Amino acid sequence: MNHAPECPLCTGPGGDVLWQDRECRVVLADEPHHPGTCRVILAEHVRELSDLAPARQQALLRVVVAVERALRTVLGPDKINLASLGNVVPHLHWHVIPRWRTDRCFPNAIWGGVQRPGEVPALDARTRTALLTAVAREASQA
After folding, report:
1. Would residue 3 count as lying in a domain?
2. Is residue 122 scored above 90 in pLDDT?
3. Residue 32: CB atoms within 10 Å
4. Crossing angle, helix 54-75 and helix 125-141, to 10 degrees?
5. Residue 17 lies in a domain
6. Count of domains observed in the chain
7. Which domain holds residue 19?
8. pTM flag (> 0.70)
9. Which CATH number do you get for residue 63?
């Protein structure tokens, strides 16, 4: 597999690993104002989705959908945002972001500027365990 020694997603997990297989991993990102934010990170250093063969594109997107489903089931957000930016870290990964109308940036993107102090549900130990279980179940079936 292709890896880049200067890439933080090649040299580290990119968050707390919730699930992984040989193609990708799902991590819980450290986003205190946006609890439950996950990343689906391709296991090799690839810049763009279109660089993958169609079967691998579909497999990766199935995991993204599985993570979305798990977040909706466990956290019940008002909306889910999906983003694949890679401008800062050009390693193919998807952000799967639960959003609440009461979060500090809604309705803007989480990178779009604070609108209010914001209130979001806490990601306590019980909820974190439920999320881990749901992501593992959904992603394994993807």
Report:
1. no
2. no
3. 9
4. 150
5. yes
6. 1
7. 8-141
8. yes
9. 3.30.428.10
